[in-house]
Amino acid sequence: MSRYKDLCKKKQLPDFKKADEVCKVVRIEFSSLKEGDAKKAVELLKNDEKKHIVSSDFKSSPFKRLVSQLTQTEINLVEKLAEKQHVDVTFDLLASDITIEGLPENVSKMNEEIQRLLHGKSTSTSSGMPSNWDMEAVKKNKWDVKLLPSSQEYKQVAAKFLRDAGSRRSQIQITEILRTQNLQLYKQYAAQKEKVQRELSTDPGVIVERELWHGTDKESATKICTSEFNRSFCGKNGVSYGKGCYFSTSSEYSSCYSPSNFDKYIILAQVATGRYQLGNSSTDRSNLPESFHSTVNKLDSPTIFVVYHDAAAYPTYVIKFSLTPHYLAGWI
C-alpha cells in the first residue's frame, strides 16, 4: 500500500496529483505481496508526473536571433534564475534556441525572464547603447554616472567585486561606483566583439566575452574611460604574459596594481577574450596568431588575460575604494 496520500495529508497538500508542485521531495514507500506491483506503481507515478511537465522553446520568439549572442555572464544569470524557478534550461547557441522544462507556471515565469533579457539586448543593439544607460547623461556627454548605493545595479557590481576579492573582502570599503557611458568607446568595443564572434562562429565552445578586473589609479581610470585602454602603457607593471592590456578574474589581484593606499581604483570591464593561448614576455600583436585573440597565464582555468587590440575591452564600471590598515598590513 502506498504512503503517498498519508504524506500529503500530513503536509496539508490540497491535491494528490499536484503534490510535487508543493513539495520539492516526497519520499514514497511501497510494500507489496507481488514483486511487480511496486514497480508498476512507480511507473504510474512517473507517468503522472510527466503529464504536469511542459516544455517551451524560443524557435518562434521575435528575439531568437539574439540567443546566439548571449554572453557567458548572461548565460550564468539565466542558469541562476532557472534554479530559483525550479526549471531545467538547455542552451543551443548554434541553433539560436533555448529550451525550458518544468511545471507550467514556472516555465511561463522563466520564459518571461529570458524574453525580458533578450528584449534588453535588442534595445541595446537598436540604439547602439546598453538599455541601462542614463539618456540625459548621454545627451550631456557625461561619461561618469554615479550609481546610488540603494540601486540593484550598485548592489550587483559591489557583490561581484567583494566576491572576487577572496578572503580579504571584509577589509574593503567601497566609496563609490561609476557607470561608464562613452558611446564612441562602446561602439568600438561592440564592433571588435562582433568581429571576434564571427571568427568563432565555427567554434561555439569558446567564450567570446568575459567580465574582468583592471587595477589602476585615478588619472589612468579617467583616461581609459574617456579615451580607451592603451597598450602603450603595457610595460608599466610588467609584460610576463605579453605586451598588451592586462585583466584578471580576481579583484584582489588587480587591486594590487592600484598604487594609492586609501583612494584605490579598479575597473570592471567587458573584455572580448575569444580564443587564447599561453602568453610570454615576447608576445605582442605582431606575432599573435590570427586565429587567437588573447594570451593567458595558464591554459587550465586562466586567471590573467592579455588582449592586444585597444578596442577589445570596455570599462563598464569604475569602483573607488579603500582598504583598512589590517588589509594593508600584509602588503606594506
Major sheet summary line: 5 strands, antiparallel
**Which blocks of ≥5 consecutive residues have pLDDT under 50?**
1-25, 327-332
Helical run tally: 12
Helix content: 25-40%
Shape: globular
Query: Largest sheet, order of strands side by side?
Result: 4-5-12-8-6
Output the radius of gyration: 25 Å
Distance between the termini: 71 Å
What is the percentage of strand-forming residues?
15-25%
What would you call the structural class? alpha+beta
Instruction: Give me the strand/helix succession.
Output: HHHEHHEEHHEHEHEHEHEEEEEH
Average pLDDT works out at: 81
Q: Tally of extended strands?
A: 12
Care to describe what's here?
The protein is built from twelve helices and twelve strands. Mean pLDDT is 81; it is low at 1-25 and 327-332. Helix 5 packs antiparallel against helix 6. With 332 residues, it is of the alpha+beta class. The strands form three sheets. It has a five-stranded antiparallel sheet. It has a four-stranded mixed sheet with strand order 7-11-10-9. Strands 1-3-2 form a three-stranded antiparallel sheet. 37% of the residues lie in helices and 20% in strands.
